[in-house]
C-alpha cells in the first residue's frame, strides 16, 4: 500500500498543518505532497501520479474544494483503481450527502484525524474492518455508512507537525490549544467548545525544532491564545528569550480580555516579534446578539493603549453581511474602529460555512449566499447585492490606502481635517466603481 496525503494550499508561502499532523500520528509509511491551487490541473495530476499512490487522501477546505473535485473526478475516470478519500472541514458536516453526490469519493474521515488515522490505514491495508475506524464514512454496496466520531482529543503528546524540513520563505502554523470558549454562530470553532491545551514545556520543545526550519513567521491557529494569562506569560517570555532574530509570532487574541501584566510583558519584546489579530466583526449590539457575540470597544481601546504599537503589529477584523447589519451600520462601525489606531483594518465578507449555526439559520435571517465555496454572502434583507459589491471596492481601498505605511500621512491628514474616514474612503470606492474598467 502506498497512501499519499495531498494538500492544495492557497499559495506557496502557506503550509498545511493538518496533513503533517496526520503523517506524524502513525508509524506506517505515508507520503505527503503539497501543491497550490494556482497550479494547472495537468501539473497537479503529474505531481500526484509521479508518487504512484494507490490511495489518495485530500485535505479539504473552502479555498481548495473546486480543485480537489476536479482532480478527484479526473482520477476516478483515468485511474479508477486508485482509491480517493477526503477529510477536513469542507466535507465533515454533510458527509453522507456529499458522497451521494460525488461518486469519485470512496470515503470521508471526520473528526480529529490524529486519533483515528492509524486505524484508518490499518483498514486500507486490509488489517481492520471499516466499522473500527472512528469517524469514517464509507460505501458498502449501494449504502453509505457513517461511523460515530470520537470525543475531544487530548493535546498531550500531539506532534508539532514540523520536523526537519526547510521552511525558508514559508509560514509554519501551530496549535497550542483546541476548541473555543465562545459561540460565534458564523465560526466552525464554535462547534468545538471543549477547550484543550498543550503543556507549555511541550510547546517550547516544538518551537525549538520549528526555529531550526528557517521560517520567519509562526502563526498560532488558537482562536483566543491568551485565555489563561499565567500560561500566556510563560509562552510569551519563552519567545522573548529564545526566538531567533527576525522572527515574527502571530497570535489571535480577544483584546477585551487583555490584562495589564500580559500587555506589559508583550511590550518587553523586540519590535516586530509579536503580531496580534483581534476580531471585532461588528460593533452593532443587535447584530452581535444575533451572532452570539459581544464587543466592548472601550475595553479594546484600553488594551490598545496598554500595548506598545511601535513594537507590536495589531490588525483588527470587520465582517460585511452579518444579519441585521446594513450599509450605514457597517460604515458607522468602521468609523468607530478607526480611532483604535490598529495597524490594519481587515474587511472580510461573511461566509456561510458548512456546519455553522448561521448557515443553518441563513433563511431565517434572509441571507442569500453563493452555493459554491467559499459560500460568500450575496445579499441580505438589509444589504443589497450592489451594496455588497460596493463594499468590496471599499475593502480594496482600505487595504491599499489605509493599511499601507506609505499612506500614513493621509491618515494623519484625515484626522487633522476632521474628515469622516468612511466617507473619505467610500468616495474613493465609488470612484473605483465608476472607473472599474
Automatic annotation (TrEMBL):
Transmembrane segments: none annotated. It comes from the Bacteria. InterPro entries: BchE-like, Cobalamin-bd, Cobalamin-bd_sf, DUF4080, Elp3/MiaA/NifB-like_rSAM, rSAM, rSAM_horseshoe, rSAM_sf. Gene3D superfamilies: Cobalamin-binding domain, tm_1862 like domain. Residues 1-131 form the B12-binding domain. CDD domains: Radical_SAM (cd01335), radical_SAM_B12_BD (cd02068). The keyword Transcription regulation does not apply. SMART domains: Elp3. Residues 166-395 form the Radical SAM core domain. Keywords: Iron, Iron-sulfur, Metal-binding, S-adenosyl-L-methionine. Its cofactor is [4Fe-4S] cluster. This is Radical SAM protein. It comes from Aedoeadaptatus acetigenes.
Amino acid at each position: 500500500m502506498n497512501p499519499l496525503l495531498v494538500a492544495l494550499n492557497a499559495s506557496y508561502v502557506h503550509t498545511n498543518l493538518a496533513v503533517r499532523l496526520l503523517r506524524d500520528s502513525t508509524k506506517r509509511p505515508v507520503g505527503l505532497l503539497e501543491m497550490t491551487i494556482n497550479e494547472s490541473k495537468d501539473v497537479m495530476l503529474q505531481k500526484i501520479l509521479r508518487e504512484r499512490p494507490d490511495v489518495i487522501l485530500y485535505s479539504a477546505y473552502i479555498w481548495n474544494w473546486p480543485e480537489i473535485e476536479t482532480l478527484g473526478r479526473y482520477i476516478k475516470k483515468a485511474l479508477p483503481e486508485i482509491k480517493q478519500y477526503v477529510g477536513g472541514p469542507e466535507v465533515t458536516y454533510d458527509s453522507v450527502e456529499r458522497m451521494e453526490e460525488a461518486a469519485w469519493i470512496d470515503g470521508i474521515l471526520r473528526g480529529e484525524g490524529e486519533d483515528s488515522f492509524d486505524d484508518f490505514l490499518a483498514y486500507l491495508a486490509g488489517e481492520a474492518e471499516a466499522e473500527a475506524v472512528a469517524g469514517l464514512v464509507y460505501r458498502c454496496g449501494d449504502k453509505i455508512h457513517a461511523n460515530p466520531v470520537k470525543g475531544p482529543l487530548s493535546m498531550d503528546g500531539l506532534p508539532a507537525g514540523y520536523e526537519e524540513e526547510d521552511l525558508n520563505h514559508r509560514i509554519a502554523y501551530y496549535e497550542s490549544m483546541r476548541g473555543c470558549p465562545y459561540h460565534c454562530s458564523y465560526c466552525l470553532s464554535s462547534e468545538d467548545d471543549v477547550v484543550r491545551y498543550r503543556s507549555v514545556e511541550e510547546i517550547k520543545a516544538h518551537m525549538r525544532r520549528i526555529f531550526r526550519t528557517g521560517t520567519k513567521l509562526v502563526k498560532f491557529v488558537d482562536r483566543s491564545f491568551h485565555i489563561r494569562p499565567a500560561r500566556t506569560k510563560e509562552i510569551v517570555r519563552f519567545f522573548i528569550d529564545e526566538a531567533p532574530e527576525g522572527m515574527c509570532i502571530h497570535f489571535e487574541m480577544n483584546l477585551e480580555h487583555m490584562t495589564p501584566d500580559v500587555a506589559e510583558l508583550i511590550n518587553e519584546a523586540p519590535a516586530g516579534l509579536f503580531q496580534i489579530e483581534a476580531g471585532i466583526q461588528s460593533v452593532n449590539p443587535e447584530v452581535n446578539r444575533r451572532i452570539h457575540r459581544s464587543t466592548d470597544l472601550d475595553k479594546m481601546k484600553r488594551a490598545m493603549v496598554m500595548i506598545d504599537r511601535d513594537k507590536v503589529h495589531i490588525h483588527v477584523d470587520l465582517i460585511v453581511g452579518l444579519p441585521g447589519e446594513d450599509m450605514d451600520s457597517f460604515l458607522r462601525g468602521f468609523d468607530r474602529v478607526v480611532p483604535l489606531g490598529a495597524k490594519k483594518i481587515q474587511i472580510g465578507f461573511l461566509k456561510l460555512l458548512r456546519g455553522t449555526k448561521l448557515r443553518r439559520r441563513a433563511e431565517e435571517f434572509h441571507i442569500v449566499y453563493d452555493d459554491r465555496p467559499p459560500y460568500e454572502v450575496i445579499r441580505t434583507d438589509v444589504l443589497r447585492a450592489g451594496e455588497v459589491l460596493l463594499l468590496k471596492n471599499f475593502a480594496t481601498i482600505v487595504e491599499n490606502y489605509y493599511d499601507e505605511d506609505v499612506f500614513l500621512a493621509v491618515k494623519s491628514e484625515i484626522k487633522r481635517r476632521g474628515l469622516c474616514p468612511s466617507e473619505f474612503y467610500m468616495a474613493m470606492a465609488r470612484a473605483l466603481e465608476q472607473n472599474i474598467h
